[in-house]
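[09:14] KT: can someone run the structure on this one? pasting the chain below
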Amino acid sequence: MSRWQRWYGGSPGHLLALLACFALTGYAAAQVVQAGPWFAIALWFIGAALAHDFLLYPLYALADAALRGRARSGPPPAVSWRNHLRLPAAGAGLLLLLWFPLVLGLPETTYTAATGRSTDPYLEHWLLVTGALFTGSALSYAYRLRRARGHRR
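[09:31] RB: done, structure tokens below
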């Protein structure tokens, strides 16, 4: 192990990437403070972190525990289906969380006044993206399952 890795614990490239991330974060924070409503943004950010930690995390931890179910005896399956369900569900949930007012059509009047457009396509688009995520995941699972069965023979 090199002296650098004993001192730092990672490669010099890792340290440079970390410093670049800190510089970008500092620049973004400076731009937010300069823009004006930094207190409202900070309040929203803290509220989002608290809502995630105390509301959303327990909910998706319970959903994941229900997905795992009881431990079964016997050999594990050749390909686990769990992650092929988790990933598209997480993607669809994140998109819904980010765009739920528009997906549900809540700000119809203000959105139309500001943009001249309707919120109607957002639900259809979210459903199409969700369907594509689950379809892609199902195809990936089928491919991996077929490949694992081929290796077993």
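[09:33] KT: thanks! The chain has two domains: 1-65, 78-153.
[09:34] RB: yep, looked fine to me
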